[in-house]
Amino acid sequence: MSDTVETVKVTIDGQELTVPKGTTILDAAHEAGIHIPTICYHRATTPEGICRMCVVEIEGWRQLQPACKAQCSDGMTIHTRSERVDRARKTILELLASTVDLSEAPEIQAMISEYGADVNRFADGERRQRPFLDDNPFYVRDYDKCVLCWRCIQVCAEDAQFIFALTLSGRGFESRVTTFYDEPMPCTTCVFCGQCVGICPTNALKPKVEWAVEQNMPPEKIREVTSAQALPPRKRTDPTRGGCRWS
Questions:
Q1: What kind of architecture, by CATH, is found in domain 7-81?
Q2: Which end of the chain is more exposed for a tag (fewer CB within 10 A), N or C?
Q3: Strands 166-169 and 55-58: what pairing?
Q4: Closest among 24, 26, 52, 27 to 40, alpha carbons compared
């Protein structure tokens, strides 16, 4: 049996490349030193093509394609910074800025600057407002900053931990990251590994110590709120759900 790897030839922004068949446009561009912006994509998680920031224009194709999922095929001519592409990315950033608090998302802020996005273009749009959740000693959840990239859900599931403490709830504009049955985090399967916090691009998930310092808490108070003893007693409410409630 032959061990020869089948390859395809593509042209990205004028550069001719030969890559293994099945290579995504994003990976091919990276190999060529061409930067394509991403928000939902992370090398540790399965590409889902959610945010659409990585869209590229392929000659002969009617629609822009997400580079994180679209695979290179022989003869493709790809443009990563065409007028259509830049306009699409700019609009995505403007829509995000109109609905989500991006104040602690430095990578997205850099994209806004690069593409000249007008953060006030859709200023009259409805903003996403979610409760601030502080229910454990290890991290806080500020979902006003959540861009629904799914990274935390993915890394908590098959892509890394196989814990499944997080899920997606709601539809459309009401979509949100939450726990099963909206239980407090200590009542879920969460093991507080911190991978969801580390992979969040907007600080919607933040270490409790960092958050407490930002609140100007004195050291003794920080030790108090970040101690495992800060968890109140709990009682199980429904054994079939594995849930609990604060007593």
A1: Roll (3.10)
A2: N
A3: unpaired
A4: 52
Longest dimension (CA), the chain: 67
Question: What pLDDT, in 10s, does the model give residues 148-185?
Answer: 999 999 999 999 999 999 999 999 888 999 999 899 99
pTM score over 0.85: yes
192 contact partners, CB below 8 Å, separation of at least 6: 136, 138, 139, 185
Angle at which helix 83-99 crosses helix 106-114, to 10 degrees, equals: 130
E strand intervals along 26-158: 55-58, 65-66, 77-79, 132-133, 139-142
User: The tokens of 235 are what?
Assistant: 């009682």
3-state DSSP call for residue 196?
helix
DSSP assignment of 109-143: HHHHHHTT--TTTTTTSPPP---EE--SSSEEEEG
